[in-house]
Amino acid sequence: MTAAAPTRHLVLVGLMGAGKTSVGAECAARLGRPFIDTDRAVEAETHRTVREIFEADGEAAFRLLERAAVRRAALDPTPTVIACGGGAAVDPDNRAVLREHGHVVWLDAPVAALAERATRTPGARPLLAVGDPIATLEDLAAARHDAYTDIAHVRVDTAGRTVTEVADLVLE
Question: What's the whole-model pTM score?
Answer without folding.
Answer: 0.89
